[in-house]
Input
Amino acid sequence: MPWLRLAWRDLRSSKARFLFVVLAVAVGVGSLTGVRSFSRAFRAMLLTNARTLMAADMTVRIFGRPTPPQEAVLRELEARGVRRTQVTETVTMAATPGSQPLLVTLKAVDPAIYPFYGEVKLEPEGQLRTVLNDGTAVVSEDLLLRLGARTGGAIRLGGQDFRIAAVLAAEPDRLTGTLNVGPRVMITHGGLDRTGLISLGSRASERFLFRLPPRGPGVEEVRRIFKRAFPESTIADYRETHPIITRALDRSTTFLSLVSLIALVVGALGVGTAIDAHLRQKMDTIAILKCLGARSSQVLRIYVVQTLILGVAGGLAGVAVGAAVTRAFPVLLSRILPAAPALGWDPLPAIQGLIIGVAATLLFTVPPLLGVRGIRPNIIFRREMAETAPRRRWGASLVSGAAIVAGIGVIAAWLVEGDARLALRMGAYFAGGLALALLALAGIARLLLAGLKSLVRHVRLPVTLRHGVANLYRPGTHSTAVLVALGVGVMFTLTVFLLQRSLVDQIAGSAPPGMPNVFLLDIPAADRQGLAALAARQAGVERPLEVSTSVSMKIESVNGVAVEQLPLQQFGRRFLRTRPVTWMAQKPAELVVLQGAWWDAARPAPEPQVSVQEEAARILGVKPGSTLAWNAWGRKVQSRVAAVHRSEAVRTTARFEFIFSPGALEGMPAVYFGSMRVRPRDVGALQRALYDRFPTVTVVNVADVLEIIQQVVDQVAVVYRFLSLFIILAGAVILASSVAGTRFRRVREVAILKALGATRRRVAGVFSVEFLLLGAVAGLMGGLLATGFTAALLKGLLDAPFRLDPLPAAAAVVLTALLANAAGWVASWRILGRKPLEVLRD
Amino acid sequence: MIRVHNLTKVIQTGTHRVEILKGIDLEVARGEVVAVVGPSGSGKSTLLGLLAGLDTPTSGSIVLDGQEIAGMDEDTLAVLRGRKIGVVFQSYHLIPTLTAEENVMLPAELAGNGDGIRDRARDLLDRVGLKERRDHYPVQLSGGEQQRVALARAFMARPPILLADEPTGNLDSANGRMVLDSLLALNQREGTTLVLVTHDAELTRHARRTIAMRDGRIVPGHEGG
Output
């Protein structure tokens, strides 16, 4: 293999630079393999512990109570030896005498049977079946803390007292449960009945846990029976990971993989620039090789082999980094992980990471490698001191640019968890988005560099500053690439931070003026009047209580076509399950009728009328005149679409997709919920007053919502920020690599400057100005784009207001400048100490 | 102006110990023009480098303008160079990112002189015949032109001593002639003490004194004008 030998020999001469290149690839590959190894270990853990995580062989989850035919199916299976227990979960208020009521998740179980698998851990140690009865509760430790209660004391739920029997340390099916709001309370079904919290139509989640007999109906058969009996329910069994967790895991794995891919792309960009710098320096060598009779293709082979060596070395180092990254996840996610997955070495993500590392490296070195063909042998006779770039052709640049975008798209598609169509679409979006972002950053970087250049030409700056700035646009520095690489990292990290903060701030800073900030759930029908009267008497009411009615109904058919036959995608699949609907006589002011007409309450139509919200109408393909058939609690309802509407109000409680004409839903089990706006300091008093009179009504204030959202957002954001640090790190490595690439020039210039009388401090000042400026400009670009990006996301996607805050962007500028300075000096500190003579005589 | 006593330079490369200078004694008077000649490897450029403070001697003493420089640290040497020594290299060593004028102004800027430096740089460029090329970058200049820019730069800070290492070594005879004329004209005008390392017989003819070197020593008897 003479090419391998030649490539290796040539590589050896630029060890320092290529060390950084290998590091840049390793950072990206490490992040990628880390994410995917953890995801696979987590999935494996879910599968091995599937029974424990469900506390059963099989579960069926429904919202609301089962219908009589469903009850019959369950009884029939029970007769065949299938054991069953029911878990009910709901959200309610809990309090101790004198304490502020607190929002909790209430879980009712049958302690004699639950759990079928796994173990409920209590403190002090004990058996659930011995401590839990209709008069007792076990509660999570945070509840004791927040209510100032203790074991043995009392807790009030739905107006009934329960004795706290023990602290709930762990429940096996916590992860596959439905609700995760506030502290947890576990009671018996008898206890739940005592509270009166659950009535027909309540939005409680019911889970049936089943244990199959050793001999009797098999898992396949039971699953079939359930699928028929509970068509809208989520059914899971121990042979698969739980579908709800799997979906969440798939989505997280895809997004985190793509974040890692950005780090890898940044790294690969660095490889591209390093190879470019390397080839510029090797132009003489290449010209000599050509003079000696080497063909372009032969020369190309040497450098392709070199790129491969670098890609493989970076990939292998990345696999090692990935092992460390994998181990960081359990720490980052400690609060939401049910059990630590076994983190052995997994070859599959390692191989995938290696392949992607090498592929990305090769893709980004296509443009400089193609330039090898343009090097003419005669340059060795007429080359002056300044390095000239290999000639590039526009056509070749376009082709290689397209190849890079397409290649990154294919890699991204490979990383998407899901079917091929989704993968291709995500791949295309990712590649397109990334290409646009990189081009935008490159454009801005060039503009800023041109601005600096003109500044130096036209304004007399102190000599240190002038030389520092001049270093940014000297030949062969790749300032644009470095700025883009660092800028991407800053942009990503800052966007995650700004989004997280804006979302939390927005909820914390009380709901926008005029919007409700207190929500009342599960209002009993009989209490509506009394509750409204009590609420109206409270201090600080800024917007009176508005009570909405909700009935859970499922669409059976649309224009005679069964809803299961409709081509529903993603969020559209929500129409396969029960949906909350309401009825109204008059059109509310914030509703705009887009098609058809609202009904005249005085002259009711012969059949029920329904107004459908714009997006639901689009997904279901209905317009005025279409028919919708419904099923609610076994009762069939035929309706005709009278109107298609749009809600102008944002985030009001009554944002129903389906509004019926009055009378259509009469006699259906309805739930009532309300919303109002109260001065923030009067919310506590309102909650206490309501709880005293109506203990079964759940009162949620914005602070509760904030806490729930903050918990989720914080855990998600910490992972994203952890991974986005890899992008910044890749950017810093590229900066170091780029500086190492200009070492030859720097060494000579330092010697000249010293020969002309510059002290080491002066030279250090010149370098620092250069590095700090690079970092500051990258931070500025990243900060500006992140701010714009956050504003666009908040306004366009999340429908939330955006408040400009220059502080995080300013911090990004300062921190990136410092990081860049550190990275630059890592690659060049040794230059300062060299004696001028040994350099200048070379 | 320059007094060198028992100067040695030894380089240790792995197992090899190379004695480049073996006890040089030399004196150069103010305003004198001295040519140092000798075969390749005789130690001429090393001697010049040590005189310029670009490297440190192994032993011996170098006194420039009454100041001992042999024990000085690098930064003190740099400041001294900025004030007292101009250097011209065989390979020009211009900064590629600066224009001809900016390259010329550089030593004065480094020394902290601000007033009138642009005018002086332009005057010097005019004197070396490059008035019209002042906005050109090194890459846009020929070898001879680059060396004349380097000459102008060397005189910029009005150094009392100018050291030139083979200033015409990389040039053809016509360009060499132009550089030589510029050098001598500037030297005469500025009254600088000039030490030249050269192979060029033409250059040697203009020196008041020639010092021959061989194997790291000054050849006795060959010193003279």
Notes: The CA atoms of residues 370 and 396 of chain A lie 8 Å apart. Chain A is about 55% helix and 15% strand. The longest helix of chain A spans residues 702-741. Chain A touches chain B through 30 residues (CB under 8 Å).
